[in-house]
Specification:
Layout: H1 2-10, E1 15-21, H2 28-43, E2 47-55, E3 59-61, H3 62-78, E4 90-94, E5 117-120, H4 124-131, H5 139-168, E6 172-176, H6 189-196, H7 206-222, H8 242-249, H9 255-261, E7 269-275, H10 280-297, E8 301-308, E9 316-318, E10 325-327, H11 337-341, E11 345-346
Parallel strand pairs: 1-2, 2-4, 5-6, 7-8
Antiparallel strand pairs: 2-3, 3-11, 4-8, 9-10
């Protein structure tokens, strides 16, 4: 409650840090925090929570994965009158970074200074506008245009961060050069992909287009700042991107395709609503799949999924504000209970042994 009061008093949209790093095991304190997450998120408005359950170095803590499936279900049930809103403030990570400035997964990492400014820049609308001048051009030209645009966006973020650090007399940390959409029309990553030439996001070619976008954003942004960090790539949250919502609504974009897309972009399955009767074990299995992608590819992946109470495929859940509106998506009906019940840890991959 103190975190929530602080957020309201300072006028911020969300506050993070109700977090745990349990990729290898849990302390007594971690156990208590995980047990409290559903109630904490249900009884607060602005507090966000994140739990890291896997890493390339440690492997996947399947006990924690199983626990998070149950926690997500509990959080949804406690906020059933608000579409399962608590789950929209809860992120399950693999390879979580310490300096991510984007909610709901941001937390102040153990390696950070006492006080630091980490700034996230966005600008998918700016990139989309720039690409409108590239109709009929080759992918070489498209990638170069994205790279130059990302440089300009990131440079502005760098200058703003430095000025804010100077005025507040605190250290400047990093610029996260991610393309993060909002529900506003014209601020969509999906629009960028369709401007590249896709008839709709989710069609064949989507993963290739997203890979190019993500790479060009990184190449342009890294030249604009001495300290690039966080997640730094393209986000694909369904409820926060008008183009993604449209693709899901017409059946072109599925959870399975979104999972494939997360192999080549920032984060993972983000702001996805599924039927309220989805079993906890299925949610855990979805988390395990996404964690495996992160672990094997040495990248950050995450799941922010909402089993919307009382909702079924075809319904929508309106979270309002920056969180947008989520169409309820179907999940595979296979039973994952025996898989999740095994527990233990999935070992780290061989390429984690780098010392």
């Amino acid at each position: 409650m103190a975190l929530d009061r602080a957020a309201h008093e300072t006028g911020v949209n969300f506050i993070g840090g109700y977090s745990a790093l349990v990729q290898k095991g849990m302390t007594v304190g971690d156990e208590k925090l995980l047990r409290s997450i559903p109630q904490a998120l249900a009884e607060t408005e602005l507090v966000c929570s994140s739990v890291n359950v896997a890493s390339t170095k440690a492997g996947i803590n399947m006990d924690a994965v199983a626990r998070m499936g149950r926690i997500i279900k509990q959080a949804a049930e406690l906020t059933a009158d608000n579409g399962g809103m608590a789950c929209a403030k809860l992120v399950v990570f693999a390879n979580a970074v310490e300096d991510n400035p984007f909610m709901a997964g941001a937390f102040h990492g153990p390696g950070e200074a006492e006080c630091v400014i980490n700034v996230g820049v966005s600008g998918p609308g700016v990139v989309h506008h720039a690409l409108q001048a590239c109709k009929g051009e080759s992918f070489d030209v498209v990638a170069e245009t994205i790279k130059k645009t990302a440089f300009r966006i990131t440079r502005v973020g760098q200058l703003v961060a430095q000025e804010a650090a100077r005025r507040l007399n605190v250290p400047f940390g990093i610029v996260d050069l991610s393309l993060a959409p909002t529900p506003a029309i014209g601020d969509s990553v999906a629009d960028i992909l369709e401007e590249v030439g896709l008839s709709t996001v989710g069609s064949h070619g989507t993963t290739a287009a997203l890979a190019m976008l993500n790479d060009a954003v990184k190449k342009g942004g890294v030249m604009a700042s001495s300290h690039v960090g966080g997640l730094s790539g393209a986000f694909i949250p369904v409820s926060e991107d008008a183009g993604m919502i449209a693709a899901v609504t017409k059946g072109a974009l599925t959870i399975e395709k979104l999972e494939a897309m997360t192999c080549v972009c920032s984060v993972g399955l983000d702001m996805i609503a599924v039927p309220g009767d989805t079993p906890a074990e299925t949610l855990s299995a979805i988390i395990a799949d996404e964690a495996a992608i992160g672990m094997i590819n040495n990248k950050t992946t995450a799941v922010r999924i909402i089993p919307a109470p009382g909702k079924t495929v075809g319904d929508t859940v309106d979270f309002g504000g920056l969180l947008g509106t989520a169409p309820v998506m179907p999940v595979n009906g296979g039973d994952a209970s025996l898989f999740i019940a095994r527990g233990g840890r999935i070992p780290a991959p061989i390429h984690s042994l780098r010392n």
